């Protein structure tokens, strides 16, 4: 059907791009250690962008089984939108050689019978019952997905790829005369052994036990170590200023490159070519090759995240960061984000460690001011852990980045964010 | 459609399914975004899809966005339910046959895309001004036509229009940057847009962004806080609303579990979630489980009197079903969600409230929030504020997040204003996004302010 659509488009005097997707997913929701909601969903569709006399039109259609008449109507509608739209059209990418990115697809996920996935989720729930005691209530989820997607445009691009994914989450609540809660989340490209599910349960329980014992600390100002998940929350705020779209529209803290924005050891990379990375791809949502982009190197700003349109508007090259599905036009987004490990041993750090925070969307990405609630942290003295929570971690992101005194050696992955621990200066309320 | 209903009946018999429900929806939507005078997106799309759910002591669900797969989706949901046999119960109730339409005065489907483009351009040009470095405008509308049927014999047709206009500016001066924004929205038609005083509100956001460039950084620590109606809305949504969702109670994840009938707040406090308010962004007539939407008093005169529930949690907790099972779309399973959540007004005037405060803050506007329902800790952001010293409003302060513990903050409410406003449309995320509104009057309580000073 894609060929038929391309045939129709080639007769029109327009530039065009189609992005298609077809996938299915099974997901399983466990509540109170019982498998309560199971689902299997299918999706497919095509997004079409048309460039005509410097203007762009976009629309989408769901499903991949359409007759000629529907497809002609789809093309006609999109061309008409291009004629009235006034959205500037900056051209489509031309074909380039794609990198080889391994580990995106695991046939075992595509081939696993639904019944088998369902019984794996059932065992996951059983394991929860085994590992918990009376004071704990556990819930969680497991999901498997497979997707095929492709892109083609009037400059000769025609790429297709397939990918698989698995994700696991556990949430634990501990009740007694107080309350504590803990959670664990991870995503993967390949089918995981049962041990990963068991690990998720244990991690969530461990965190709930710590949280149960946690109290609010007195105020503190000074050196603080952030664990990878807390670092991830701050990187999320920083990313808004690194998007080429924010830069172009004057909404970013940054106007140009080469500015010193962080402490000397801070190097941040976006890399869509990481083997088996959950954010990896060999081409982005416009057909630009996946690549490794150094955003900040040794504290100095080196690149923004760019798609074809904003790269062209800023006079730069696309970094292959156009993210989309068939319902949307491409938007700038991260692939895998890596904070380069440093030479500091922060694993046995004695002092204040913040593990998890929440509320990062209340931060101001432009001024950089943040005040986040500490979900869990701990004070380490002589190897002993005293957990705390409910304090606010406050500071200014850009001041914090410049205050970084240490970057840990051990890289931890959470989904598509890879980070070590970092040591910087902030305040706890 | 009748063929599909018969088919579902046949399949249910084959798989021994006790209960099933099918949702088919068609959404006709358009959206436009403009940044700094440049149109970035203009989309007009229609999407049809089906979601099928079957119950056998546990749920099986399947969906398809290709109607040629409708029967397959129904069969898949039933197969999964058969495989899943659990021991949960659900509320069934009597079949409902109804057709419910929220009818706007002027349908946005009758407004040309050129006129919507003209609106976005007008807002963009009104946002221009000295000191404004960036501006963006978003307009979106969608008409959702839904058909719901279930194994009890319910057949419900619903038509709900929803639209939203929002704009955002960033002001810049000497390396300092600050932003401000405003949203309008409702289950309404183009008349909502025509009723907005665009000159007034665009000037308002410009002036706010510019004034924030010179505002102080807020202090840190625990303070008396007066919240404006918008901030009261996000506060009550985060602090109380999420913990009152019955699925969270069921999963041991709510600090409000086991507290029905207990006094948890000051006596004057009444909190309501009402999906039946006419025209509000979070309104609907039937929820996504075919249950009629009901106004729910969560707290009445300080006492926790109800949870928001769905078919499953109402059966589990022995509560009257109140129609709060909502899904993001046909391809999602309903979850217990809020609609329009607000605090009922009291009898304090704003001036009286300010006079009450010796050393505190007047905080304004919603920057979103987040809650840990199990531990009862929440965070919410304010767009700006003013210091209050000895009963008088003083210098302006910048945006900041506040935090508190639900039960403490509800008991620390000292004054409830007489000026109710519920006009702050937004989206609430809980793994799925649904449109909501919230609000209330001015409210005086205590909270932890995360300022840098």
Give start-end ranges of low-pLDDT stretches of chain A.
Answer: none
Question: Could you tell me the strand content of chain A as a percent range?
Answer: 35-45%
Oligomeric state of the chains? heterodimer
Q: Which stretches of chain B of 5+ consecutive residues score pLDDT under 50?
A: none
The coarse overall form of chain B would be globular
- Please bin the fraction of helical residues of chain A: 10-25%
Decide which structural class fits the backbone of chain A: alpha+beta
Distance between the termini of chain B: 64 Å
Helix count, DSSP H or I runs of 4 or more residues of chain A? 9
Provide the number of structural domains of chain B. Answer: 2
Shape of chain A: globular
Radius of gyration of chain B: 23 Å
How many individual β-strands of chain A? 21
Going across the biggest sheet of chain A, name each strand in turn.
3-2-1-4-5-6
Tally of distinct domains of chain A:
2
SSE sequence of chain A, one letter per element: HEEEHHHEEEHEHHEEEHEEEEEEEHEEEE
Largest sheet of chain B: 9 strands, mixed
Short synopsis of the structure:
With 429 residues, chain A is of the alpha+beta class.
Secondary-structure blueprint:
The complex is a heterodimer of chains A (429) and B (453).
Chain A: H1 2-11, E1 15-31, E2 34-52, E3 55-62, H2 68-85, H3 107-111, H4 114-131, E4 136-153, E5 158-175, E6 179-188, H5 194-213, E7 220-226, H6 228-242, H7 244-248, E8 268-271, E9 292-297, E10 300-301, H8 308-314, E11 322-323, E12 331-332, E13 337-339, E14 351-358, E15 369-381, E16 384-388, E17 392-396, H9 397-403, E18 406-407, E19 412-414, E20 417-419, E21 422-428
Parallel strand pairs in A: 7-14, 13-20
Antiparallel strand pairs in A: 1-2, 1-4, 2-3, 4-5, 5-6, 7-21, 8-9, 8-13, 9-10, 11-12, 14-15, 15-16, 15-17, 17-21, 18-21, 19-20
Helix pairs in contact in A: 1-2, 4-5
Chain B: H1 2-15, E1 19-35, E2 38-55, E3 59-64, H2 70-84, E4 97-101, H3 113-127, E5 132-150, E6 155-173, E7 176-186, H4 190-194, H5 198-213, E8 220-227, H6 229-241, H7 246-250, E9 271-273, E10 296-300, E11 303-304, H8 311-317, E12 325-326, E13 335-336, E14 340-343, H9 350-356, E15 359-364, E16 369-372, E17 377-382, E18 384-389, E19 392-397, E20 400-405, H10 406-411, E21 415-416, E22 426-429, E23 433-439, E24 443-450
Parallel strand pairs in B: 4-6, 8-15, 14-23
Antiparallel strand pairs in B: 1-2, 1-5, 2-3, 5-6, 6-7, 8-24, 9-10, 9-14, 10-11, 12-13, 15-18, 16-17, 17-20, 18-19, 20-24, 21-24, 22-23
Helix pairs in contact in B: 1-2
């Amino acid at each position: 059907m894609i060929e038929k659509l391309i045939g129709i488009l080639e007769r029109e005097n327009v530039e065009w791009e189609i992005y298609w997707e077809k996938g299915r997913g099974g997901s399983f929701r466990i509540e109170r250690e019982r498998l309560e909601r199971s689902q299997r969903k299918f999706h497919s569709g095509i997004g079409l962008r048309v460039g005509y006399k410097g203007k762009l039109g976009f629309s989408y259609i769901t499903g991949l089984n359409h007759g000629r008449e529907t497809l002609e109507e789809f093309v006609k509608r999109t061309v008409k939108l291009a004629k009235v739209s006034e959205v500037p059209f900056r051209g489509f990418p031309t074909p380039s050689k794609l990198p080889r990115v391994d580990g995106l697809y695991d046939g075992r996920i595509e081939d696993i019978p639904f019944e088998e996935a369902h019984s794996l989720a059932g065992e996951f729930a059983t394991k929860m019952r085994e590992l918990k005691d009376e004071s704990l209530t556990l819930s969680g989820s497991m999901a498997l997905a497979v997707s095929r997607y492709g892109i083609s445009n009037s400059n000769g691009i025609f790429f297709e790829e397939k990918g698989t994914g698995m994700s696991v989450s556990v949430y634990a609540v501990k009740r007694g005369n107080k309350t504590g809660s803990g959670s664990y989340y991870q995503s993967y490209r390949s089918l995981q052994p049962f041990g990963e599910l068991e690990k998720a349960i244990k991690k969530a329980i461990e965190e709930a036990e710590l949280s149960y014992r946690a109290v609010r600390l007195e105020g503190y100002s000074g050196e603080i170590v952030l664990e990878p998940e807390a670092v991830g929350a701050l990187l999320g705020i920083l990313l808004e200023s690194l998007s080429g779209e924010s830069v172009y529209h004057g909404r970013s803290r940054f106007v140009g490159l080469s500015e010193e924005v962080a402490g000397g050891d801070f190097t941040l990379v976006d890399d869509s070519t990481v083997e088996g990375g959950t954010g990896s791809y060999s081409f982005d949502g416009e057909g630009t090759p996946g690549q490794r982009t150094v955003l900040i190197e040794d504290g100095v700003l080196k690149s923004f995240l760019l798609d074809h349109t904003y790269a062209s508007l800023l006079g730069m090259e696309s970094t292959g960061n156009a993210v989309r599905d068939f319902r949307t036009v491409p938007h700038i987004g991260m692939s895998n984000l890596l904070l380069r490990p440093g030479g500091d041993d922060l694993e046995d750090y004695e002092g204040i460690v913040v593990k998890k925070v929440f509320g990062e969307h209340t931060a101001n990405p432009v001024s950089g001011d943040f005040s986040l609630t500490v979900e869990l942290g701990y004070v380490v003295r002589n190897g002993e852990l005293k957990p705390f929570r409910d304090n606010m971690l406050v500071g200014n992101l850009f001041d914090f980045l410049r205050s970084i005194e240490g970057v840990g050696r051990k890289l931890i992955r959470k989904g598509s964010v890879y980070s070590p621990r970092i040591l910087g200066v902030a305040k706890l309320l | 459609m009748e063929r599909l209903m018969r088919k579902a009946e046949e399949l249910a018999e084959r798989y021994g399914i006790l209960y099933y429900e099918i949702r088919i929806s068609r959404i006709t939507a358009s959206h436009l975004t403009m940044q700094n005078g440049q149109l970035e997106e203009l989309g007009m799309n229609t999407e049809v899809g089906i979601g099928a759910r079957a119950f056998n002591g546990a749920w099986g669900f399947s969906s398809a966005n290709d109607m040629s797969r409708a029967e397959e989706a129904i069969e898949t949901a039933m197969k999964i339910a058969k495989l899943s046999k659990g021991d949960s119960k659900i509320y069934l109730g009597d079949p409902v046959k109804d057709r419910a339409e929220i009818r706007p005065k002027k349908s946005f489907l009758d407004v040309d895309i050129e006129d919507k483009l003209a609106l976005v351009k007008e807002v963009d040009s009104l946002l221009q001004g000295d000191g404004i470095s960036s501006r963006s405008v978003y307009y979106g509308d969608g008409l959702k036509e839904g058909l719901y049927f279930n194994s009890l014999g319910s057949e419900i047709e619903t038509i709900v229009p929803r639209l939203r206009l929002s704009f955002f500016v960033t002001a810049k001066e000497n390396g300092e940057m600050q932003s401000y924004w405003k949203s309008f929205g409702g289950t309404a038609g183009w008349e909502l847009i025509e009723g907005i005083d665009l000159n007034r509100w665009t000037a308002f956001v410009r002036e706010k962004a510019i004034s924030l460039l010179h505002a102080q950084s807020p202090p840190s620590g625990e303070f008396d806080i007066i919240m404006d109606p918008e901030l009261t809305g996000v506060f009550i949504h985060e602090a109380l609303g999420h913990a009152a969702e019955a699925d969270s109670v069921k999963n041991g994840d709510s600090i409000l579990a086991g507290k029905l009938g207990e006094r948890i707040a000051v006596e004057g406090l009444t909190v309501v979630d009402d999906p039946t308010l006419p025209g509000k962004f979070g309104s609907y007539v039937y929820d996504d489980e075919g249950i009629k939407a009901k106004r729910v008093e969560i707290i009445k005169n300080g006492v926790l009197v109800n949870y928001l529930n769905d078919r499953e949690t109402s059966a589990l907790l022995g509560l009257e079903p109140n129609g709060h099972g909502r899904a993001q779309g046909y391809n999602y399973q309903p979850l217990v969600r809020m609609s329009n959540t607000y605090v009922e007004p009291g009898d304090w005037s704003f001036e009286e409230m300010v006079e009450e405060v010796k050393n505190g803050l007047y905080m304004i506007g919603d920057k979103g929030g987040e809650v840990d329902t199990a531990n009862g800790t929440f965070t919410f952001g304010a767009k700006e504020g003013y210091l209050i010293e000895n009963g008088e409003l003083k210098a302006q302060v910048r945006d900041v997040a506040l935090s508190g513990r639900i039960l403490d903050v509800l008991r620390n409410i000292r004054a409830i204003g007489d000026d109710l406003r519920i006009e702050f449309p937004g989206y609430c995320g809980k793994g799925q996004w649904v449109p909501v509104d919230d609000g209330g009057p001015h409210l005086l309580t205590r909270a932890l302010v995360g300022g840098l000073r």
